[in-house]
From TrEMBL:
UniProt-listed SUPFAM superfamilies: Ankyrin repeat, HIT/MYND zinc finger-like
GO CC terms: cell projection
InterPro entries (UniProt xref): Ankyrin-MYND_dom_contain_2, Ankyrin_rpt-contain_sf, Znf_MYND
Subcellular location(s) per record: Cell projection
High-level lineage: Eukaryota, Metazoa, Ecdysozoa, Nematoda, Chromadorea
Any single Pfam family the record assigns to this protein: zf-MYND
Protein name: MYND-type domain-containing protein
PANTHER family linked to this entry: ANKYRIN REPEAT AND MYND DOMAIN-CONTAINING PROTEIN 2 (PTHR24150)
Organism of provenance: Diploscapter pachys
Main location: other
Length: 287
């Protein structure tokens, strides 16, 4: 409850991972997530309400009573748990996680099965696995990042990155729980714009899941969608969460930067990084 009130999503997750009970109430009958909602800590609300325990992942990986089943490494359970228990939904962020544990592709059938069972993030994962398999001449990590670059493609006069936009739109269309309130909410926010228009599918989905306030208060990383991106291109003001994301996007960014600069992205002037800093960072990019 104190972590939720203080707006510490990482700490909320750590506590939940170690068995904190989200249904416990305080002396006035409020749960931690209700307290977080009351003080406007929406990221904490979403962490608490969407928490998935490692036990749940284990129960799908190694079902009880099926001794003949294959044994899977602890790293796989940890990886699936990390994928499913964060509130990250951006395809590129998921691919970057996957690329940091390419062994998951060795167990792809089981991985997809468990993620499917747990929830609906499988589409970007499934498409990534398909793409990686089609690039059998490349190492899995390299192929996964190639797919991220494909998703990030962007040209002048395109209000949003078209490949991510259509991936997310088709993910929603094939969302398996169409009778839920969540789906109705998402369908409604999605109708705010047509494919290729702003707000893009990612912004719409973030608003549908996490609410208008998070959307209004946060800068999202242009590459991976992370909340609270602090680095900005000094020319076009596009936001990034890290150098890694900035590098991954650079080949695309340099083509659209001057056009974007004319598009008036609304940001506050602080938090920009200097041109020298960017150039120093980009000097070691080899492509
Ligand atoms: Zn990022
Ligand atoms: Zn720029």
């Amino acid at each position: 409850m104190f972590a939720a009130l203080a707006g510490k999503p990482e700490l909320c997750k750590l506590l939940m991972d170690h068995g904190a009970r989200s249904y416990s109430t305080n002396s006035i009958g409020k749960t931690a997530s209700e307290l977080a909602a009351f003080v406007g800590q929406h990221e904490c609300v979403s962490i608490i309400n969407n928490h998935i325990s490692i036990d749940e992942v284990e129960s799908y990986l190694h079902p009880k009573g099926e001794n003949s089943e294959e044994k899977f490494p602890q790293e796989l359970a940890d990886f699936i748990h990390a994928m499913c228990s964060s509130n990250v939904i951006h395809p590129v962020a998921l691919i970057m996680k996957l690329s940091s544990y390419p062994d998951a592709l060795k167990y792809k059938k089981k991985t997809l099965y468990v993620v499917d069972r747990i929830f609906e993030k499988q589409l970007s994962l499934r498409d990534t696995v398909k793409f990686v398999e089609s690039k059998s001449d490349k190492a899995p990590k390299e192929a996964a990042l190639l797919y991220a670059k494909y998703l990030l493609q962007w040209e002048e006069d395109q209000a949003v990155r078209p490949n991510i936009d259509s991936l997310l739109r088709s993910a929603l269309a094939s969302f398996p729980y169409q009778h839920t309130l969540l789906f109705e909410t998402l369908a409604k926010v999605m109708s705010r714009s047509k494919p290729g228009e702003r707000p893009g599918a990612y912004e719409n989905i973030v608003q549908g899941i996490f609410g208008q306030r998070l959307l209004a208060l946060s800068q999202f990383c242009s590459t991976c969608g992370a909340v609270g991106a602090k680095k900005r291109c000094p020319v076009c003001k596009l936001s990034y969460c890290s150098q890694e994301c900035q590098k991954l996007d650079w080949a695309v960014h340099k083509k659209v930067c001057s056009w974007l600069a004319t598009q008036n992205l609304s940001v506050s002037p602080r938090d920009t990084i200097s041109l020298d800093e960017i150039q120093a960072q980009l000097a070691d990019i080899t492509e």
